[in-house]
Design brief:
This protein has 14 helices and 13 strands. It is α/β, with parallel strands linked by helices. Helix 9 links the parallel strand 8 and strand 9. Helix 1 packs across helix 14, helix 3 crosses helix 4 and helix 11 crosses helix 12. The longest helix has 19 residues. The radius of gyration is 20 Å and the shape is globular. It starts with a strand and ends with a helix.
Length: about 325
């Protein structure tokens, strides 16, 4: 098969890298497009994935995001028009799904967040939808995908974390002192379709982390605007990331992770690193499963902030493995 994979956000690069390897090993020809959004392009370069850069992130607000979605769909159509693809594949790349539908390319999409309103678009355009087993069936029905959905066991992050081997002495190689607790902080994506509000809790939590003299807080911005928002903050405890780190190694080396996004929270939870979620959108089934297992804790209000403890944890990493998942997913893709 000739398969077209579109990478629209940073987590998708990590997720698809091992899947690309399986597809290549099985003899399929794969072409990759990537969107210039957050650290997507830098991460794809870091992973050594050949790609064509198409489109960028829209401006803040529903109108800007919608305009950029359809602009990118047109750009992808122009690129893919003469490629003769047998299948389009993404983790809910709405622009690719629109382009594939217009070009009559059968499409497969994966998704694990049932409260994303754009699932109404993505799931209806896709020929096949792959979701985790805990994804609510009533949500599938609401999105018009009940008859074309297949499930996979576990969490999508296990595709690349099940065979993860941490780099030795990662903290010292990256210049993080063992004298301090390494806290990885990722702010929420407040502009997204599923998170259209500002998260004041994020600022409160960050101030708490920075007030601890034993904490070294590595701030991982999504966009430059989030860096600009910190221009008034003066703290020797704060380090704003100026490069793209290898996520699994960083989260494995951290003493604490606090994030407003789902993927990073699940990555830390699966690796066994203490993690607190400050995500203020509706919680999804995969996150609730990790909460029930005690691997993920949620900070829902200012009253919960004191639950966050900053110290040198004696972390015993109990990685949740699911080694056959990537092959299982590839089987569903090419079926």
């Amino acid at each position: 098969m000739r398969i077209w994979v579109d990478l629209a956000s940073p987590p998708q690069a990590l997720f698809f890298e091992p899947i690309l390897g399986v597809l290549d090993k099985r003899g399929h020809e794969v072409k990759v497009t990537a969107r210039a959004y957050a650290q997507t392009i830098q991460l794809v370069d870091q992973l050594g994935i050949p790609y064509v850069s198409v489109g960028k992130h829209g401006v803040k607000g529903k109108i800007g995001l919608t305009t950029e979605l359809f602009r990118r769909a047109g750009q992808l159509m122009n690129w893919a028009r003469h490629q003769k693809f047998d299948r389009a594949l993404s983790h809910n790349s709405y622009a690719q799904l629109c382009a594939a539908a217009m070009l009559r390319i059968p499409s497969v999409t994966l998704m694990d967040y049932e409260h994303q309103p754009l699932n109404h678009l993505g799931f209806r355009l896709a020929h096949k939808v792959l979701i985790p087993e805990v994804f609510p069936k009533q949500s599938l029905a609401r999105f018009g995908a009940l008859k074309k959905a297949s499930t996979y066991p576990g969490f999508k992050e296990q595709v690349y974390l099940s065979e993860f081997t941490p780099e030795e002495n990662y903290r010292s190689k990256e210049g993080f002192s063992d004298e301090y607790s390494l806290v990885v902080f990722r702010p929420p994506a407040s502009w997204t379709a599923y998170h259209q509000f500002e998260n004041e809790l994020s600022k409160i939590v960050l101030n708490k982390l920075l007030s601890d003299p034993k904490a070294h807080v590595l701030f991982l911005p999504r966009l430059q605007s989030q860096v600009d928002d910190l221009s008034h903050v003066s703290s020797k405890n704060l380090q704003i990331a100026s490069k793209v780190y290898h996520g699994p190694d960083l989260l494995y080396a951290a003493d604490l992770v606090v994030s407003g996004g789902g993927t990073m929270n699940r990555e830390a939870a699966i690796l066994g690193t203490p993690v607190f979620s400050i995500f203020k959108g509706r919680s999804c089934a995969v996150d609730e499963m990790l909460v029930q297992q005690g691997r993920l804790k949620k900070v829902l209000s200012e009253n919960d902030v004191d639950k966050i403890e900053i110290s040198r944890y004696c972390v015993i990493h109990d990685v949740m493995k699911n080694r056959g998942l990537k092959d299982y997913i590839v089987d569903q893709i090419i079926k």
